[in-house]
């Protein structure tokens, strides 16, 4: 159960990703005048018949429900010439106000967009907690999917 980027983790990605175009880099350097976000695109490579992906409605998640959690790559598996990257995500705490949704039997021609980070401030979480889960109706092979991150910039 997580939201893939904490606010610190999202800013780290934008500031340290080597392939971001220079225009996007300049936008992030302008500070609060530039809004940016991280959106994951999640798509199954075969029909999902078990271990569905559930998404929490961010409007039901208070900022106080989120706890930062850091992970670091195994240093023995990392090039010693490179700095270890920061990976910080949110771990949401249980709150009965949370509302969860999922798409049953998602097909290969369908995809989910998951907002993982947004610099825009409002009264709700700026990220969507999500998790796989099992039901008594699950059947078939384990879920397989592809996921990629999109960086979005507004000025």
TrEMBL record:
Sorted UniProt keywords: Oxidoreductase
The UniProt record lists the keyword Phosphoprotein: no
GO MF annotation, one: oxidoreductase activity
Superkingdom of source: Eukaryota
Keyword Transmembrane helix among record annotations: no
Family, similarity comment: Belongs to the asaB hydroxylase/desaturase family.
Designated name of the protein: Methyltransferase
